[in-house]
């Protein structure tokens, strides 16, 4: 099973890092779209369907939380899983992101394993194509 | 004074963590600037604590950071990627510091700034006495980070 991913970050370098980690993690990616802020992300979504969105918070024009709010209010996009990835890791900020519908939160700086694990939990499929709940039951983990 | 020491420790820990996790660079504290900095990045933060963080990087250190972060070679380094890389480093250092300083509070970060070239030399000098100044060295080059609290008694 392969996925379409949208990476939203105003840093080209950080988008490249995230893209590289996903590729090295073994997830099968069909298309990887990129956007520099929330507005560009909405524009990208009008042209392409994605299975998961990974978004920074601190961006110009439209930040990640504003993007998340717009997505969750839109019937077409509200089911797309969103992972927030940010330096702003206060408990209140994380709670707000989850309350607004984010399904994952990764705090920068992060290790490649942190992103791989969160992607696995959010999209429910591991790098070998196995569903998370199957692996979870085998490992005795509670997802 | 105790508060400034806590800030200094949290900032130092944040810098080590960011450099080790994202850039695979291991820094050591150093005794002062060496005057050969080529890049500068800065960011402001506001909330229960307000201030600004400025960092100046030697060219060799900045180039290793970029190459390690993106796993690229010398011939792929360009000014745009360097700007992104160093701005992101300040974003992470500042965000990480604020989480360590007080994870129960919400802070806002500005969009980072960036400059390169000769004007960077000495650009962190003359900041008021309320600043925390940290110097680092590594096998790859030098770094100076200044956290200042304009118009506020941080002690």
Detailed description of the structure:
The complex is a heterodimer of chains A (143) and B (155). Chain A contains 6 helices and 5 strands; from the N terminus they run βαβαβαβαβαα. Chain A is of the alpha/beta class and 143 residues long. Chain A has a single domain (3-139), classed as Rossmann fold (3-Layer(aba) Sandwich). A 5-stranded parallel β-sheet of chain A has the order 2-1-3-4-5, with helices on both faces. In chain A, α1 links the parallel β1 and β2 (29-35). Chain A is globular. The two termini of chain A are 21 Å apart. In chain A, 37% of the residues are buried. Residues 132-143 of chain A have low confidence and may be disordered. With 155 residues, chain B is of the alpha+beta class. In chain B, 36% of the residues lie in helices and 25% in strands. Chain B is built from 3 helices and 7 strands; from the N terminus they run αβββααββββ. The mean pLDDT of chain B is 88. In chain B, β2 and β3 form a beta hairpin. The chains are: A alpha/beta (143), B alpha+beta (155). The interface between A and B is medium-sized, with 23 and 29 residues.
Please outline the helices and strands:
The complex is a heterodimer of chains A (143) and B (155).
Chain A: E1 3-8, H1 12-24, E2 29-35, H2 38-45, E3 52-55, H3 64-73, E4 82-86, H4 91-99, E5 104-107, H5 112-123, H6 132-139
Parallel strand pairs in A: 1-2, 1-3, 3-4, 4-5
Chain B: H1 2-22, E1 28-29, E2 39-46, E3 51-57, H2 59-70, H3 79-101, E4 108-109, E5 113-116, E6 132-138, E7 141-148
Antiparallel strand pairs in B: 1-6, 2-3, 2-4, 2-5, 3-7, 6-7
Helix pairs in contact in B: 1-3, 2-3
């Amino acid at each position: 099973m392969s996925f379409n991913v949208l990476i939203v970050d105003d840093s080209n370098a950080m988008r490249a890092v995230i893209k590289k980690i996903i590729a090295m993690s073994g997830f099968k990616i069909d298309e990887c779209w990129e956007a520099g802020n929330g507005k560009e992300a909405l524009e990208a979504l009008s042209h392409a369907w994605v299975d998961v969105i990974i978004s920074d918070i601190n961006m110009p024009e439209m930040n990640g939380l504003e993007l998340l709010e717009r997505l969750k209010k839109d019937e077409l996009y509200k089911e797309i899983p969103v992972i927030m990835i940010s330096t702003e890791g206060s408990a209140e900020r994380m709670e707000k992101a989850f309350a607004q519908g984010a399904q994952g939160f990764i705090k920068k700086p992060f290790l490649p394993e942190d992103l791989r694990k969160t992607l696995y939990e959010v999209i429910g499929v591991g790098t070998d194509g196995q569903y998370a709940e199957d692996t979870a039951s085998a490992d005795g983990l509670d997802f | 004074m105790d508060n400034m020491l806590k800030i200094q420790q949290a900032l130092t820990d944040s810098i080590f963590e960011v450099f080790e996790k994202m850039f695979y660079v291991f820094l050591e504290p150093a005794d002062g600037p060496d005057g050969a900095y080529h890049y500068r990045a800065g960011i402001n933060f506001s909330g229960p604590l307000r201030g600004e963080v400025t960092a100046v990087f030697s060219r060799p250190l900045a180039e290793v950071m970029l190459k390690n972060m993106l796993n690229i070679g010398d011939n792929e380094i360009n000014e745009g990627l360097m700007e992104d890389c160093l701005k992101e480093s300040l974003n992470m250092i500042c965000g990480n510091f604020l989480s360590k300083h007080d994870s129960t509070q919400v802070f806002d970060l500005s969009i980072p700034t960036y400059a390169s070239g000769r004007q960077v030399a000495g650009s962190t000098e003359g900041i008021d006495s309320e600043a925390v100044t940290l110097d680092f060295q590594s096998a790859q080059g030098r770094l100076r980070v200044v956290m200042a609290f304009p118009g506020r008694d941080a002690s």
